[in-house]
Amino acid sequence: MKITKFGGSSLANAKQIKKVFDIVKADPDRKAVVVSAPGKRFATDTKITDNLITLAEQVRDGKNTAKILTIIKERYMNIINDLDLGQIVKAKLETNLQKMVTDSYTSYDHLLNTFKASGEDNNAQLVAAYFQQNGLAAKYISPEKAGLYVSTQDGHTRVLPETYTNLEKLRQIQECIIFPGFFGVSKEKQRVTFSRGGSDITGAILARGLKADLYENFTDVDAIFAANPQIVAQPQKIDHLTYQEMRELSYAGFSVLHHEALRPAIMANIPIRVKNTNRPELPGTLISRTRTDNKYHITGIASSHGFMSISIKKYLMNEEVGFGAKALNIMAEHQLSVEHVPTGIDEISLILRADQFKDKEEEESVLQELKERLAADDISSEKELALLMIVGEGMISTVGTAAKAMTAMANTGVNLKMIDQGSSEISMLFGIAAADEQHAIKALYNTFFKV
Amino acid sequence: MKITKFGGSSLANAKQIKKVFDIVKADPDRKAVVVSAPGKRFATDTKITDNLITLAEQVRDGKNTAKILTIIKERYMNIINDLDLGQIVKAKLETNLQKMVTDSYTSYDHLLNTFKASGEDNNAQLVAAYFQQNGLAAKYISPEKAGLYVSTQDGHTRVLPETYTNLEKLRQIQECIIFPGFFGVSKEKQRVTFSRGGSDITGAILARGLKADLYENFTDVDAIFAANPQIVAQPQKIDHLTYQEMRELSYAGFSVLHHEALRPAIMANIPIRVKNTNRPELPGTLISRTRTDNKYHITGIASSHGFMSISIKKYLMNEEVGFGAKALNIMAEHQLSVEHVPTGIDEISLILRADQFKDKEEEESVLQELKERLAADDISSEKELALLMIVGEGMISTVGTAAKAMTAMANTGVNLKMIDQGSSEISMLFGIAAADEQHAIKALYNTFFKV
Asked: Which is one GO molecular function term here (chains A, B) (predicted)?
């Protein structure tokens, strides 16, 4: 049994929804379909989720919402018309939208979550109607009905454990389940969305709850590529990678699959297959616990920018028990998440995402506080850093991978500001100037994949 | 004006003390001589400091001390006889030793510190007597008299700032000052030793206090070598290195100069020259704030073993603000000093000296505590690690040093378990299996110095 999730571009218009129908119909094992909100139909198009956020903001600010509401309604109406879904579906959509904007909410957050969730929710109802009309027994199931419960901690939406017990009951449903992605419900019966791209998470939760054999994730690329195709022309497709490889690559910029979608799959050991809705005949990329060897030495190269480093110097620092703890505590007090901590003898660096500081003033005040409370000799910061990661199972036990990677970068004149290797056994992390990011990726790709 | 310190092997017997006399006499700028306790005369000899520690332990345990006391006395008596110093010096030594063993002490720590300090103290008095007898106006000055005040915090003896004001007055003394190294006095007038090898620290403190132009450190090697001569045959001598290079090298195993001796010299910007008592005509090694370029790409290669790593895995760790701080806090609560913290995406490693755990049980209990309090998915430890460091000013701005180093190690089959670079701009740290230490050092030496 398979859980099959379709992304926003796979459901952006009637033509795409017909492809989805053909895919689901072709394999009776596809027990549940997780549906995103309509995405972009062309490069400059706006996703319906973004329109819904705009609508929420306009409601909050007391602005005239007529125009944006029309845009949202038209998106659905075009699809409904093009799919010949008829009056009942139209009326249901109108009711849904009307209810959404006239309901009362306990907070703006509640309103925003509900508005965002409606993108997927309306689309799922519409897809279910189209499937039924075309002779495929399908049933729309909402997260409320299924009991997909979530809670929010520190701004993160997480699934509650009882969800899995609840979802298992869906196995008894005879029809193909059409399930809206992206959101669950709180114990207070409010809709709460996952982070953006969260339909991937819903799919994984369903796969775990329904004890699927495979979680299919349909998107608009043929496979996961070994490097960013916007940097490297026609990079190699990855046939097969492990959960852990995917996790590390998604940390450093691979966005094909939402990284939070991995955990439920890992917990239940359900393989994930990423496929292209527009070319379903292609094998795509398989993600599973283990894999057979691939012909390349490493699996992928990822990068991400927007990082900065804070360097703290203090003579005899390394003899001061708890110095690192003190530094990290100060950062935690300010809710600053530090991602890497390269250490020298009398120096420690804190690598973090720069956008955590709301302005220059806040940054300077934290630097000053670090200097004073740590009695540091010197403190400085450096901006515009990129983190670059090479990933591959068993990489560390292969002597020379590090040397090869660094030689490649040195030969292109890329100056390594940070090297962090030693915790993960399957990845190596380099800090470089953001300006060097593209060169470095190309150099690494040529070294490891053009062999 | 120069402060000149002589190590234990430079003062181990009458023959060596005569060399010291010749060296001091040859240069009237040598204003103060800092004296160690008599060291080893031959490879299997025992340093007098170790004999004094044995004596202290025997007193504490109520054992018969006659034999060890005789050994200590004989060491000095041999020197006194060989230098023809005569009865007054002998009587003074006997009085000193007698007073030491019969005095009462506030604690064993007080006793131990006083006993250890006597090694240098008696030697300084004896050296002063020899200098005077041979026509060099010399004066023994004790730390009490000079006002070399120290305090102890967390087991570390540190000089108090007023010391420098006190020491400046010694500039008015006409004679050559003979000063015992290794200890100062507390505000309670008790003698407190620095850590082992601490005469280097006394020398540096005097250099700063007396505002010397140069701090000469005489030992038994021709220079500081670019690599450990016990691993690399006849390594390159380093002509000139910076304070910071010395600091990093001494962290990772270069023991020629006590690393705590650097700070006073750095603060007062006093250059240090390491020389050989047995070959004073050689230039030795100069350590100063800046240096001219040397012909090699890096300055030195150091290594140190006895490290271990603790690896902690937790899914989505990197999204948990303060995770690293929590881990380091737990270590600090146990007074465990963590030296390096390589971080992955969902993993963090703690690199520390393994001997901080008193036994396997304590280690397991800390690991268990980390696992529970951090709600970690997995925790493991790895022993027998060595840290290897390559050091050189401006190394980081030279693209390719890292690549060169790693290629060298990869070619010899050395598996890199950890790479930490990014905080210090003049060094790069590698974690390897202790079993690979010698291979790795040789490979790096051949790459960077045999050019």
From this structure: aspartate kinase activity
Q: Are A429 and B342 in contact (CB under 8 A)?
A: no
Nearest residue to B348 (alpha-carbon basis) of B319, B379, B321:
B379
Sign of CA dihedral A43, A49, A55, A60: negative
A153 touches chain B (CB under 8 A): no
pLDDT in tens, A16-64: 999 999 999 999 999 999 999 999 999 999 999 999 999 999 999 999 9
**Chain B residues lying within 8 Å of A347, measured CB to CB:** 423-424
When computed from its CA atoms, the radius of gyration of chain A, rounded to whole angstroms, is: 24
From first CA to last CA, the distance across chain B in angstroms is: 39
Distances (CA, A) of B169 to B2, B144, B145, B165: 16, 14, 11, 7
Terminal CA-to-CA distance of chain A, rounded, Å?
39
Rounded to an integer, what distance in angstroms lies between the CA atom of residue B188 and that of residue B326?
A: 39
The chain B residue lying nearest A402, using CA atoms, is B406
Q: Which of B322, B337, B343 sits opposite A321 (nearest CB)?
A: B337
Of the candidates B46, B42, B47, B70, the residue with the CA atom closest to the CA atom of residue B58: B70
Specify the long-range contacts of residues A252-256, CB closer than 8 Å, at least 24 apart: A252/A302, A252/A303, A252/A304, A252/A387, A252/A388, A252/A389, A252/A391, A252/A429, A252/B345, A253/A228, A253/A302, A253/A303, A253/A304, A254/A224, A254/A300, A254/A302, A255/A197, A256/A219, A256/A221, A256/A224
- Every domain of chain B and the residues it spans: 2-220, 300-449
Sign of CA dihedral A402, A406, A409, A411: negative
Beta bridge partners of A264: none
Tell me how many degrees the CA angle A215-A120-A238 measures, rounded to the nearest 5: 35
On whether the CB atoms of residues B243 and B287 are closer than 8 A, the answer is yes
User: To the nearest whole angstrom, how far is the Cα of B447 from the nearest Cα of chain A?
Assistant: 14
Residues contacting A446, CB < 8 A, separation 6+:
A408
- Kindly indicate the confidence band of residue B345, based on its pLDDT and cuts at 50, 70 and 90: confident
Q: Which residues of B touch A201 (CB under 8 A)?
A: none
In angstroms, the CA A132 to CA A142 distance is 17
Residue A40, token pair as written in the block: 């972009």
Cα–Cα distance between A280 and A273 in angstroms, integer? 11
Q: Tally Cβ neighbours within 10 Å of residue A33.
A: 29
* Interface ipTM: 0.75
Nearest CA in chain A to B249: A345
Instruction: Write out chain B residues lying below 8 Å of A428, CB-based.
Output: 419
Scanning B294-333 for CB atoms below 8 A from A yields: 309, 311, 315-316, 318-322, 324-325, 328-329, 331-332
Q: What pLDDT does residue B398 have? A: 66
Ranges of residues in chain A with a pLDDT under 50 are none
Say which CATH superfamily domain A300-449 falls into.
Answer: VC0802-like (3.30.2130.10)
pLDDT band at B396 (very low <50, low <70, confident <90, very high): low
Task: Show Cβ contacts of residue B74 under 8 Å, excluding neighbours closer than 6 positions.
Answer: none
More confident residue, B131 or B404: B131
CA distance A244 to chain B (A): 10
B416/A contact by beta carbon, under 8 A: yes
Which chain B residues have a beta carbon less than 8 Å from that of A248?
Answer: 344-345
User: For residue A196, which amino acid is it?
Assistant: R
CATH for B2-220 is: 3.40.1160.10
CB contact under 8 A, B325 and A321: no
The pLDDT, as a whole number, for residue B331 is 93
Mutate to test the interface with B, among A194, A250, A421 (most CBs of B within 10 A): A421
**Residue A367, C-beta contacts closer than 8 angstroms, at least 6 positions apart:** A310, A379, A381
